[in-house]
Every structure is written in structure tokens, then in C-alpha cells.
Design brief:
Strand order of the largest sheet: 1-8-7-6-4-2-3-14
Distance between the termini: 60 Å
Low-confidence stretches: 390-399
Helix content: 25-40%
CATH superfamily of the largest domain: Type I PLP-dependent aspartate aminotransferase-like (Major domain)
CATH class of the largest domain: Alpha Beta
Number of helices: 14
Structural class: alpha+beta
């Protein structure tokens, strides 16, 4: 039977169930009534609670779909170009965990890029896997990291033929990506499956100005945060599968382990609706967002601010996502953190910032009015007089190994063992092994994980983040004056 992409079967099933007005002698306890004694809460939640049901005969079961949820996932697979798609209610995190746990056994070895999201590292820890961590390529123009070079991946595959998977993250948080096809082909020549954390690229391939998707490049497993750049509710994501190199049954089983047995039906229905919107509208879905980007970039010429990916700030070989506006102060008066704060003071809330850049994420919900507000804010900030505020650091902008041929490191065993730790001043930690996580969030990419050797480049970057007041997860001292390291006898 042909699938009808104009339908949203799961959403329609929830609406039909709500219209029954049946007595709800099942969970959840709110019974579709916002009876909290708060009129404001009732106004916000009242209409949504009718969709917040459980696994019933007419709503389906995430872990054993047979009805509208099965059809919704089949429609998503067809829309995104996968052979099989599974809905996720724990964001890309749950998909990243499941694909690693489903594929790896304790002691198995994988090849992964070093700058992956913390959920990838957590998946390796849960699986008890070993990983060869490859340094990413550094874009010389921006100083930002992308994926490892094809030649480095090929060398790692040659050295470690027992590798169970190649794990990459693309695009990066700044919307930058490179052509994955040659890397995927290199892995497939050795029958190694390729797993891609494409959290920020669910929209790729659906507009002429967007880069191609990882599925199009041939990846075997692709995780996408549908809520990040498309129209799903927060925590809504998808896991796409294709090809015969992956154990699909084991991955499905892993999904039952890492996802709730009581998933949110409003989140799953929003995945269904986001897919319907995407397929029905295709490139029209993004007209306002893409136009907004173009207008903002044009306005930048009247300010000291510039955007990566445009004019002289576009690198050859890098694809830039037009839905990620990555702004910086060309005159070096404002850091990314400072520009973010200035924008927020004018009611333009950015996605993230670092020492140099501020990242603004657009999407199907972006309007031209949003763009007008952003343009006005940038013009106002540019018109304010100020003394030079950006501190200049004569150091590397990253902590990854560089060069034409970065070395292939020895495997790292990821486990959940806790090591005896001592506290040292950050400046005295070079050469020691970290005993805690240090994760700037966003983007959620660990700068340090337990057991990793601390380098001068890492310490330098942590100092800069401390100076700028970046938000840090994992570290005991969130001000980064001190850091936990392993006792020498444990190393």
C-alpha cells in the first residue's frame, strides 16, 4: 500500500481518541484535565493534555508499533530516505546510546572523531568499548573543528581492521560540514558501518541551499534531533537505518533499554507533524528562514559584525548551513560571549556562544519579523560606543593535534570505573590524567573526559572560558580554578 505523506497518522489517531471523550481509567493521572488550580497553567496546558495519553488499543506502542505509530515511522523513513526509522523521545542522546550499545560488546573497538557529543562518549562507556579517537580537521579560516580527514580515517581503518564502526559527528554546532561520501566509502570498502550523529542536520537535503544529508552520503546509522532544526517538540528525534552492515534487531532492543516505557505521545505526534510539514512544503518550509538569513547578512555590512560562510569568510571545501548564523565582531571589540549578552539584552536569544562566535539557529518557525528584530538589534549594538573589550590570546584556538598527517592514537578503554582523584590548580594539571568531565554546554562536546591526558592547549582554552564565564558541566569547580586529576598511582 502506497504511503500518503500528506497524512500525520499518529497525530490524527490522538485527536480521534481525544474526541471520544471516554472515561480515562488509565494513566496518566491528569485525565486530560488541567486541574492544578492555576488558570494560567490551564490556559497553557489545557489543549495539550488531551493528546498526552498512554499505550492504548488505538494509540499504539513505541516499542512494538503496529498501528498509527508504525505508519508514522514508515512515512518518516520514506521522507528522509532511510530503509527504517525509529522515533526517539530522549533526543539524539537516546539514539546515540542505542546505536552504540546495539553494535558494540565489551572490549570491542571503534574509530571515532575526538570532538563528539558527550552522549557518544557515554554510549562507549555503557558498552565498555575501546575507541581510537581521531583529531578533527581544523578549518584554517575560522579555527573550528570539523570531521577527521579522509586520509586519517583510512589509515586508522588500515591499522585497526577489527574496528566495529566508524563514528562521526556532522555538521558541527556551527553548521559546518564536509563531504562525507569519501569517508563512508573508505569504511565500507572494509565492511565497517558508519554511524553519524547528525543532530543539527535533520533538514539537510530539503532545500537547494542546504548541504546533503548523511543518509545521502551512504551512512548506515544516522541520528537526527528533529526538534533542533525542524518543527518537532523538544526531545523529539529520529534514528535512521539503512544497509546490511548493522544489527537492526540489537539496535531496536537497545532502544527499549534507553527509552522510557511510557513515552510522550505529544512529542511523538510532533515528530509526525514535522515530517508531514517537511515533505509537504519541501523547500517552501524554509523560505522565511533562508530569506531572514540573507537579509541579516546584508545588514551586517553596516556593522562591524560578520557571518561565517559569506564573502571572504567562506572556506573552500566547507558547506555552511544557512539556518545557522555564526556571527563575530570583525574589529575584535566584542567576544562571542559579550555579543550574545548584548543581543539577549535586546530580546534576541542566541543558541550558544564561545570566545569568538555567537551562534543563532533558525528554523521552520522563524519569521521575517524575527529577522527584522535581529537586524535592529545588531544595528543598535554597532552604534554603541565602547572601548576595545576583546582580550587577545596569542595561542591556539583549539586543543586538537594539527598537521598534514596527525598521528593515529592508541585505543582508549571507556568504562565506568571511578578513580581516586586529587584536586590541583588548573595551571599545574598539564600532563596529568583528568578524573572528571569538563563539558561546555552548549555545545556539549567534552573538552576533557576521565582518563584523558591534560595538555597545554586544553588548559589554555579552559582559562579563556573561565575568563569569559562560560557555562560548564561535569567539573567540580565550575569556575575552573581547580581540576580533579587521577592520583599518580592510578595512572
Amino acid at each position: 500500500m502506497a504511503l500518503d505523506q500528506r497524512k500525520a497518522p499518529l497525530f490524527e489517531a490522538l485527536v480521534a481518541h481525544d474526541r471520544l471523550r471516554a472515561g480515562a481509567f488509565h494513566v496518566p493521572g491528569h485525565k486530560a484535565r488541567a486541574r492544578w488550580g492555576d488558570e494560567r497553567a490551564a490556559a497553557y496546558y489545557g489543549s495539550l493534555l488531551g493528546l498526552d495519553v498512554t499505550e492504548l488499543s488505538d494509540t499504539d506502542d513505541l516499542h512494538h508499533p503496529e498501528g498509527p505509530l508504525l505508519e508514522a515511522q514508515e512515512l518518516a523513513a520514506e521522507c528522509f530516505g532511510a530503509e527504517e526509522t525509529r522515533f526517539l523521545v530522549g533526543g539524539s542522546t537516546s539514539g546515540n546510546l542505542a546505536m552504540i550499545i546495539g553494535l558494540c560488546r565489551p572490549g570491542d573497538l571503534v574509530i571515532a572523531q575526538r570532538n563528539v557529543h558527550k552522549s557518544i562518549v557515554h554510549g562507549l562507556m555503557l558498552a565498555g568499548a575501546r575507541a581510537v579517537l581521531l583529531s578533527p580537521e581544523i578549518d584554517r579560516l575560522s579555527g573550528l573543528a570539523t570531521v577527521p580527514a579522509e586520509r586519517q580515517v583510512a589509515e586508522a581503518l588500515e591499522r585497526y581492521p577489527e574496528a566495529k564502526a566508524l563514528i562521526l559527528s556532522s555538521p558541527n554546532y556551527y553548521g559546518m560540514s564536509t563531504d562525507l561520501s569519501p569517508i563512508v566509502a573508505a569504511a565500507h570498502r572494509r565492511d565497517v558501518p558508519v554511524l553519524i550523529d547528525e543532530a543539527h542536520g535533520a533538514h539537510f537535503g530539503f532545500h537547494p541551499e542546504f548541504p546533503p544529508s548523511a543518509l545521502r552520503a551512504g551512512a548506515d546509522l544516522v541520528v537526527q534531533s528533529t526538534h533542533k532544526m525542524l518543527g518537532a517538540m523538544t526531545m523529539g528525534a529520529m534514528l535512521h537505518m539503512q544497509g546490511k552492515r548493522i544489527p537492526r534487531a540489537a539496535i531496536r532492543q537497545a532502544l527499549t533499554m534507553v527509552q522510557s516505557s511510557s513515552p510522550s505521545f505529544p512529542i511523538m505526534a510532533s515528530l509526525d507533524l514535522a515530517r508531514m510539514q517537511l515533505h509537504s512544503g519541501r523547500k517552501h518550509t524554509f523560505f522565511d528562514a533562508v530569506d531572514t538569513t540573507a537579509q541579516v547578512v546584508e545588514t551586517l555590512e553596516k556593522t562591524p559584525f560578520r557571518a561565517l560562510g559569506y564573502g571572504k569568510y567562506a572556506s573552500s571545501g566547507i558547506a555552511y548551513d544557512p539556518l545557522k548564523l555564526v556571527l563575530f565582531d570583525e574589529t575584535a571589540n566584542l567576544t562571542g560571549f559579550a555579543l550574545r549578552d548584548e543581543l539577549e539584552g535586546l530580546r534576541c536569544v542566541a543558541e550558544m556562544a564561545d570566545e569568538k562566535y555567537v551562534v543563532l539557529a533558525l528554523g521552520p518557525g522563524t519569521t521575517l519579523e524575527d529577522g527584522q528584530r535581529l537586524q535592529e538589534a545588531l544595528l543598535e549594538i554597532a552604534g554603541r560606543g565602547r572601548e576595545k573589550r576583546m582580550e587577545i590570546y596569542h595561542t591556539k584556538e583549539h586543543m586538537f593535534e594539527e598537521g598534514e598527517n596527525p598521528s593515529i592514537p592508541e585505543p582508549v578503554l571507556f568504562d565506568r570505573e571511578e578513580y581516586e582523584a586529587v584536586t590541583v590548580r588548573l595551571e599545574h594539571s598539564v600532563g596529568r590524567q583528568a578524573a572528571e568531565w569538563v563539558i561546555p554546554y552548549p555545545p556539549g562536546i567534552p573538552v576533557l573526559f576521565p582518563g584523558e591526558t591534560i595538555t597545554e592547549g586544553i588548559v589554555d582554552r579552559l582559562k579563556r572560558w573561565r575568563h569569559e564565564g562560560a557555562r560548564i558541566q561535569g567539573a567540580q569547580d565550575l569556575l575552573l580554578r581547580e581540576i580533579q586529576v587521577r592520583r599518580e598511582k592510578d595512572c
